[in-house]
Amino acid sequence: MIKVAIVDTVLSTSQAACLNLQQVENHHPHLPGLAQSNHGALVVSLFNRQVKVAHALSYYGLLCSQGTTNGKDFYYLLCRLARQRFDVINLSFSMAHTSACDVIAELIKDMQEAGTVVVTSAYNERHLGIGFPASCAHTIGVTEQEGGDGRALKVVDEEMKLIALKPQAHRIELEGIPVHVCGNSYSAPLISALIANHLGDTQGAGTTRAVWDFLTRK
User: Fold this and answer.
1) What percentage of residues in the chain have a pLDDT greater than 70?
2) Is the whole-model pTM more than 0.85?
3) Is the pLDDT of residue 24 over 50?
4) Cα-atom radius of gyration of the chain, to the nearest Å?
5) d(Cα 56, Cα 22) in Å, to the nearest integer?
6) Which domains does the chain have, with CATH numbers?
């Protein structure tokens, strides 16, 4: 069974009840009622829609409603996730580069070498450029981009392992209410599900490099 973790915004009790989650932990230091948004629930819904293999999905609410966190909280949560040896971790957010990024990048490198594939959105706001951790070579960064040669996925940066899907809108039923979303935050869980499916089909035999090679053949 493929082990998957999604780190995103804090989930409410009602949101968590509607999703197929093995466990839910909210780690945001502020009151959950002040931090909740639909973002994380939408990310999980898109992942659940695309994943086809047997999997165990764990959810960690870390981000505030604006989709941001600080390096210290992120680092300590990743330390916990590293000990649990997930196959895929989805981060549908990015951070500005700070002094903490070097330490976090080393930790992600260790996780990658232990067999975890970390998928992350390329940016929170396009005009700010590629954010962290998509900017480090130890993750698979996801963005959206028009054009290409008709293939499902387009390589944007081979060295950075940055890949693009064509922009698309998604309609999701969330607690009985239809929601329409788009953007690279919602492309990342599609790639995470694709990777989980691939790992399930190959009995989990895949490094980040091997998974990248699989994606670039799509």
Assistant:
1) 88
2) yes
3) yes
4) 16
5) 6
6) 2-216 (3.40.50.200)
